[in-house]
Amino acid sequence: MKTRDQEYRELFMAEALEYYDSMSRHLSELERNPNAGPALNELFRLMHNLKANARAMGFTDLGEVAHQLETLFGLIRDKEREFSGALIRVVFAGVDALGSMIRAVGANQPLPDATALLHNLDLVVRGEAPILEEEEAAETEEESNRKMELSDLVYIQVKKLDNLLNLVGELVIDRDRIMTLAQELDNPALLATAQHLFRISDDLQYSVMDARLVGVGVLLNKFPRVVRDVASAEDKEVKLTLSGQDVQIDRNILQIITDALLHLVRNAVSHGLETTENRLKAGKPPIGELTLSAMTERDDVLLQVRDDGRGIDTEAVRRKAIERGLITAKAAPALDEQAVWALLFEPGFSMAQQVTDISGRGVGLDVVKLALDSLGGQLRVDSELGVGTTFTLVLPTSIAVKGALLVEVNERPYAIPLMHTDTVLALHPGQISIVGGVMVTYLHEQSVPLVPLRQLLHDEGDEPLPSAHKSDIEGTQHVLVVNYNSRRLGLIVDRFIRQQNIVIKPLSKPLDTIDLFGGVTLLGSGQVCLVLDVPALSRLFLTKRP
Amino acid sequence: MAETTPSLTSSKTERAKPTERVQLIVFRLGDEDYGIRIEQVKEVTVTPEVARMPKTPLFIKGIANLRGDIIAIIDLEERFRLRPEGRPVPERSYTVAVEADDYTLGLMVREVPRPFTLPLSQIEPAPEFVQDSSTRDKYLEGIAKLPEGGIIIVLDMRKLLTPSEVMRLPGKMASS
């Protein structure tokens, strides 16, 4: 835990030092012009933020000094006090004290005593004369040197990092283009330079991505409080275990899934875990176990929410889904557990309020799915009735660069993010059967529907796809099996081109309304390549299947 | 109708009048001349390689890479149904990149667009009545009558470029 404490301390320090610098600057301005409104507002705001941060970190005295100064600046702003005379000296002494306290925090030393200062501040706030020593001793050289210290950390807006990442993305595309050209021209000098450029831009890309990474802990560590609040509201006893806080992930990804994770955790506590009484009845330990863990798997980050609660009542979900019209009563019995659980995350399903009483799951879980879809992430559900439920969010480490498989349909390339691909198959006509007009193959004993990507993309209108016939299947079929919401779908393509890292650019208006495409990428040749959105493709197939 | 093509020289000789002048980028759609105010035009270029985008109306030719920006390329002849039957889109076409509030759109035209300056007073507001059923009248700023005969139909890009307008399907396809 020490490293995490250290990390927070560093963050606190970086912010506090920046606040301190701004305070000194604004204070000098205020001294020149006691009515400088913006400077006053800024000082008020800085004090407020510093107070909040200091209190959150448990630096009570530091928080108290900042609080008094905040009050004082508030009074000055409201024209109840004037920035003059003895007040100025107290304020400067106060800000100096903040500086030495912040430095003490940084050096891991006890905070200097602030009793006299706090007393003076209190007097000034109440409008009384402060007790000032005759003349403060001149500052030692060491003290004035300290005021010149610069922080080792740079605070940077995420927006700037976003911009940097976009630029690097462009650079990588151009780099690939130059590399292709160099190979075509077969000029050794150009090739050597291109290879050098390749390495440098690779390093650059890595560095920029690395600069955006934060520990998952910054999010996970907010959960003990959330769990405590929900648990006490529900009158349950919950023991929360966190692990993998040091797993690194892009800051924006963490931001996007914050709500989703919050939902899952709240859900787990209020619906997944039973009351103490019910747990005892079921022969379980009285205290519910909730585990939030992060781990890496290949290039992905897995975030897991596991409870040892009652589990998902698959049959109740199945009934509810029929009631909600998400599946037909005829199709329902054929769905396996995974397919039924996947229904929990359908928007239509979560509208059902009562379901929480039956199955314990379902309110607003589509939020989770939406967040994951926007990232190109995946959701895995694992549950056993009476034993517990585990939700696993599979997230990319970084937003901008994604592995993708390039396929060709009608002589045009399309990219499909690897996040959603299961496997590729080359099927003989004999391995494909027709069930109800849909081509189907068997993969690990499970049936997977097949559809020509050409039909999904190019058939206009809302009519169902034409029924497949055995006679239509000629020669080896190249199939890419994609996976969305635990449903697998085999896309028949003309050929596979290659696997490659792509930088996805969002589609600009007015084409951004077509959800079939997650964006565009430029290939090394400069060719425009559409990125397919697997969730949208799967939905399209479901609505148009014959 | 080709002989009514306005020429730059004739417009320059009229510059004596101290009136407000408008610069247009003029191009042909069907058999008529259309103009866009030059300040709404970002650039004119040979149409780059266009990738057809499935699930979009046919008049959206697709998307293209214009100096790193991915923009939609639309064919106004098809949009307004101005292309005479049997006339194919030429191999080499030009794209007028026009700027909407927050995005750029490419208009594909068959001939090199040319600049044209005329007094603002020559542009008459579009007539209220609709002479044919095509939807383009909604997007007209006005019609410029040229002294030597012929007209330029001045389009108002800001009205044309709202995303809902761009995506609207022409004619009978609107129901699908």
List the quaternary state of the chains. heterodimer
Q: Strands of the largest sheet of chain B, in order across it?
A: 9-1-2-12-11-10
**Sheet bearing the most strands of chain A, described?**
6 strands, mixed
Largest sheet of chain B: 6 strands, mixed
Number of DSSP helical runs of chain B: 4
Gross morphology of chain A is globular
Q: Radius of gyration of chain B, Cα only, in angstroms?
A: 16 Å
DSSP, total strands of chain B: 12
- Uncertain spans of chain A: 351-363
Strand order within the widest beta sheet of chain A:
10-14-15-13-12-11
Short structural description:
The complex is a heterodimer of chains A (546) and B (176). Helices cover 47% and strands 22% of the residues of chain A. Chain A is α+β, with helices and mostly antiparallel strands and 546 residues long.
What can you tell me about this protein's structure?
The complex is a heterodimer of chains A (546) and B (176). Chain A has helices at 2-32, 37-57, 60-77, 86-106, 115-125, 141-146, 158-185, 188-211, 217-220, 223-234, 251-272, 276-281, 314-323, 337-343, 347-350, 355-358, 366-375, 453-458, 534-544, and strands spanning 213-215, 238-243, 248-250, 288-297, 300-307, 378-384, 388-396, 401-409, 412-417, 421-427, 433-435, 438-443, 446-452, 477-484, 487-493, 495-503, 517-522, 528-532. Chain A is α+β, with helices and mostly antiparallel strands and 546 residues long. In chain A, strands 10-14-15-13-12-11 form a six-stranded mixed sheet. A five-stranded mixed sheet of chain A has the order 2-4-5-7-6. The radius of gyration of chain A is 30 Å and the shape is globular. Chain A starts with a helix and ends with a helix. In chain B, strand 7 (94-99) and strand 8 (104-109) form a beta hairpin. Chain B starts with 7 loop residues before the first helix and ends in a 9-residue tail after the last helix. Chain B is mainly beta and 176 residues long. At the A-B interface, strand 17 and strand 18 of A face strand 5, strand 6 and helix 4 of B.
